[in-house]
Amino acid sequence: MINKLGDLTTEKVNKIYSDIDEKSAFEIIKMMNEEDKKVALAIEKEMPRIANAVEKIVEAFKNGGRLVYIGAGTSGRLGILDAAECPPTFGTPSEMVVGIIAGGEKALYEAVEGAEDSEAEGQKDLEGIGLSKRDIVVGIAASGRTPYVLGGLSYAKEIGVYTISLCCNEQAIVSEIADIAITPVVGPEIIAGSTRLKSASAQKMVLNMLTTASMIGIGKVYKNLMVDVQTTNEKLLDRAKRIVMMATATTEEIAEKALKESNHQPKVAIVMIQSGCRPNEATAKLEKANGFVKKALEYIRGEEEIC
């Protein structure tokens, strides 16, 4: 395992860009864009492990567990961002996907000196949320050696929690600890050591995959529509209406009526329109189908055939 910071790929100097400080704005942006193209290719190599992680996350959700992200600095902020976007997008409870960052809330806005250097703090923060065996923990660290993350993952393993690591360096310590190691190696940054660039982009893309694919896996998407979207503002109310219209090929008037009767739940409104069910009947069928719209409609059609 590589432990010295200077030996990490993410810390190396990319000699191709040693004169970047002499370039024009356009030349700098072009260089950055060329480097960013490498991110998707690095993630492609990790797809089998990402898919395996998604299967484990879906399993945890179905057993009433949580997805917990833990990280420091940029990595921690990315975890919190991904967690925060799940409730409005997929209608999940706020506690279903949790983001934890070294240094706490203050670290979201400014660097908290030394916060990432304590393994004990990583364990303490996971203890603070009542981590249990039903949960699944993703340790995010571009370097793969952040003590706070290592401490958190080690504690999770000790109490029988399934663990996933996400870092951008081969032979990283965190990869040795985790049950699944996701390691998109994007190469040296265009500004040496600035892992808020390619490394952070890779991490964000992987986190997108983990939550999006997992939410699809528990019925939060019908066709390619986010049918559990929360209608908490005018924009989302309008989006919910358009989702119902697209899912059912119906008129705006019918979609609005069904949404109103279903207490603005797109899933229920879709099942109502497609089957002619009342809101309580549609809700019951969705519960029987574990939230999958397509399965709920199949149940209803099956009952119609029997009749």
TrEMBL record:
Which controlled-vocabulary keywords does the entry list? Carbohydrate metabolism, Lyase
Pathway per its UniProt entry is: Amino-sugar metabolism; N-acetylmuramate degradation; Amino-sugar metabolism; 1,6-anhydro-N-acetylmuramate degradation; Cell wall biogenesis
Q: Which Pfam families match?
A: GKRP_SIS_N (PF22645)
InterPro entries reported in the protein's UniProt record: Etherase_MurQ (IPR005488), Glucokinase_regulatory_CS (IPR005486), MURQ/GCKR (IPR040190), SIS_dom (IPR001347), SIS_dom_sf (IPR046348)
Q: Mention one GO molecular function.
A: ether hydrolase activity
Sorted alphabetically, which SUPFAM superfamilies does this protein's record hold? SIS domain
Some GO term, biological process aspect, for this entry: which one? N-acetylmuramic acid catabolic process
User: Which residue ranges does the record assign to the SIS domain?
Assistant: 57-220
Gene3D superfamilies in the record: 1.10.8.1080, Glucose-6-phosphate isomerase like protein, domain 1
Enzyme class of the recorded protein, top EC level: lyase
Q: Which residues form the active site?
A: 85, 116
User: Which NCBIfam families does its entry note?
Assistant: N-acetylmuramic acid 6-phosphate etherase, PRK05441.1, PRK12570.1
The function of this protein is: Specifically catalyzes the cleavage of the D-lactyl ether substituent of MurNAc 6-phosphate, producing GlcNAc 6-phosphate and D-lactate.
Could you describe the subunit structure of this protein?
A: Homodimer.
Q: Which family does it belong to?
A: Belongs to the GCKR-like family. MurNAc-6-P etherase subfamily.
What is this protein's name?
N-acetylmuramic acid 6-phosphate etherase
Q: Which organism is it from?
A: Alkaliphilus peptidifermentans DSM 18978
